[in-house]
Amino acid sequence: MSRNWIMKTPYTRLIIIPLFDELLWAAAWLYKASREGRYLKYAISHGGWNQAATEFSWDNKFVGAQILLAKEYFAGKHELETFKRGADSFVCTIMPNSNVVQIRTTPGEPSKSFYFFE
What we know:
By secondary structure, the protein is of the alpha+beta class. 43% of the residues lie in helices and 12% in strands. Helix 1 (20-34) packs antiparallel against helix 2 and helix 1 packs parallel to helix 3.
């Protein structure tokens, strides 16, 4: 499987778009849904793609993969510690009053707040 998606546009000759977060996200969900070890093995073998993230969005799914795989860590799969550390890091960046908080929210009810990254 290719690690990049290649797109040609009229404005450039070639754009290479990394899909690492997409592949980890898919492997995490496929493992959760099927419990087939090959998906977990894929995520572990590509753990080097894992990175600290300060957002979870349509364009950055590392945090989603980290959270899903961290749940497996707490269920006893300790080989997923790197994903648990990534999830911990993300949670710290969004917790109010954290010494590493990297976002600010709009005033109002927490459930209706918008988050802005600095």
